[in-house]
Amino acid sequence: MTKSILPGMLAIALLAAWPHAQQPTQPPAPQQPSELEATLTSEGNVAPRLAIPDFIALSSDAETIATAKTISQVLWDDLNFEREFTFIPRDVYGSIPKATSFNDVPFDRWRELNADGLIIGTVQKVNTGFRVEMKLFKVSTRQAIYPRQYDGSNARLFAHTISDEIHKSQRALNGVARSKLTFDSDRDGERITGTVQQRSIKEIYISDYDGENQRRVTTGRTLNIAPRWSPDGRSIAYTSYRRGGANLFISNIFAGTLDEVTKGDKVGENWLPAWSPDGTRLAFSTTRDGNPEIYIVNRDGSGLRRLTTNPSIDITPTWSPSGTQIAFTSDRSGTPQIYVVDVDGLNISKKTSESYCDRPTWSPAPFNEIAYAARSGPGFDIRVLDLSTGATKSLTFGEGTNESPAFSPNGRHIVFTSTRSGKTQVFTMARDGKNVRQITKAGNNYEPDWSK
Amino acid sequence: MKSARSIATLLAVITALTAAACGKKSPPVARPMPPPPPVSGSNTPGRPASPPEPAREPVSVPSEPMRDDAIASASLDDLNKNSLLKPVYFELDSSELSAANQKTLDENAALLKRYPSWAVTIEGHCDERGTAEYNLALGERRAGTARTYLVSLGIAADRLRTVSYGREFPFDPGHDEAAFSKNRRAHFVITAK
Fold it and tell me: Do the Cβ atoms of B76 and A285 come within 8 Å?
């Protein structure tokens, strides 16, 4: 069932850049237990105002200086992404004397700018890379309310880790700075030479949540599309044509192995795997019994079970966070619409009545929403259905065509594709449609998913 | 698909085809102009201006109807380049066979009866106005509709495989109806002869 096809070098390269897969290099242990941990607050009910001056390089070599600068800039972006804090504009930082250690921070000057919190960090070169010390100060009391020390070598990963920990400790929020995206792309320009025409291949890519570190994880030189992260972030399930027809594959990207979930001559076409929340099963669509129906299968290909029985098209499944229901697309009413069914195949209910809806994606808890693409004129827009009220709202408004939404692990963001900048590219936006960021620029990029 | 033939055989076939096309026996019929080839790169904004092309890509001109002996000796590549089995085209969001489609499939069925050893893959394709996901199933339905019709005409089901490519492999990369109408199709590829 499993055989090694990915080059070992690729797996090693991925491992080195992966926060969850390797041994933790920066144990977040408080170093000064005498300092009291507290939560940053602000006057009234507004978001606390933060300042993040450049981290202090404790040696004058270029590498340490660059690492210090990168950490503070990426940390600013990471914290800004969740909109839990407001920020002292960076262009006024220059008027404040730079600290050279934790002992000469000009708190009075930061207080004049109405900063509630101040993040000061030092970067020290050590044998294994860098040691980063970070303190979140409450400006009014000059108290270090959240001090941490980290060892590592990856500047961006220091920042992502600090951001996630500050969100967790100060706002009780699971940040997404260390989460990953996956999508398929034709950027390599490789083609299948055929008898009829030249056909562009697609390969599966991954990247950091902010679009950094984009790298290819398949080498099938065929159509590899619609990737989905396993809940543990170690595997990607997708649809591949490497055996001729469409079949389900799982790339275990750190082990460098490939699993074939559907194989044989009698399995028909197999599309669009979606992981169960516990990572043991996949929902997908297959034509093995004549027309596209939703099935569930164990990740090793065993335990196949049919969920829908209808002569129309049933495709694009997504699991509810509890694992008890599946939403999917069916055109049994005449046009593609979103339906929900229990995992035992009972209680099918129609959820949309628009001109054309597809790619439902169930939000994580506590939100109880399904995002989908809805035809709105010549193209599509991203819409969200609130399952508790039945209300729908649009998040995009005809800026190009917008498709294939997927939620971030904390449910506060959506990754999707849009043609608003020309070719089809991956974007992220907040769950209210604001803060749109372009993630990809090379080639065309499709069908993104966000790690859990 | 069969493995590559030797270059010598291929050259011989090409020579034979050329002879068939240019031979004195062929009546000098006026040939319809082929449609202009899609201009590659026209949909890639932002690419720096490239120097003028030294020569046009050779356009594959639809040849005159192949004679039986030429068909029998031609390679799969040549048979498919000449589109002996004609594609059928569909309306937006539809997999219904029009009367014109049925006539096309009648002709394809006649060829498949004349060459009973041929095996064929019917590819279902869609235009970009449907979603990437649903189009996978719509393409399968289009290919299946064509296959069911051919089987109803007596073609053995085990000679006809289907595969859907959704909107992944457009024949015309344009973004207008002229392109879309070419991309909503069931396309026939001879895989064994």
Answer: no
Q: Which residues of A429-444 are buried (b: 16+ CB within 10 A; e: fewer)?
A: bbbebeebbebbeebb
* Predicted confidence (pLDDT) per residue in A64-99, tens digit: 999 999 999 999 999 999 999 999 999 999 999 999
Q: Which residues contact B6 (CB under 8 A, 6 or more apart)?
A: none
How far is the alpha carbon of A379 from chain B, nearest alpha carbon, in Å? 7
pLDDT digits (tens, 9 = 90+) for A359-415: 999 999 999 999 999 999 999 999 999 999 999 999 999 999 999 999 999 999 999
Query: Which of B76, B121, B129, B131 to mutate to test binding with chain A, by most A CBs within 10 Å of its CB?
Result: B131
CA-based nearest residue in chain A for residue B176: A378
Which of A52, A49, A40, A56 is CA-nearest to residue A76?
A: A52
Q: Which residues of B are less than 8 Å from A421 in CB distance?
A: none
Give which of A191, A197, A424 to mutate to test B binding, by max B Cβ within 10 Å.
A197
Domain definitions of chain A by residue range? 23-171, 180-450
What is the CATH code of the structural domain delimited by A23-171?
A: 3.40.50.10070
Question: Considering the domain A180-450 in this protein, what is its CATH number?
Answer: 2.120.10.30
ipTM value:
0.89
Q: Are A287 and B143 in contact (CB under 8 A)?
A: no
Q: Which residues contact B89 (CB under 8 A, 6 or more apart)?
A: B101, B181, B182, B184, B185
- Contact between chains at A404 and B163 (C-beta distance less than 8 A): no
Read off the pTM. 0.84
Report the gap between the CA of A62 and the closest CA in chain B (Å): 35
In order of their start, the domains of chain B are 70-193 (3.30.1330.60)
Q: Can you list the residues of chain B whose pLDDT is less than 70?
A: 1-67
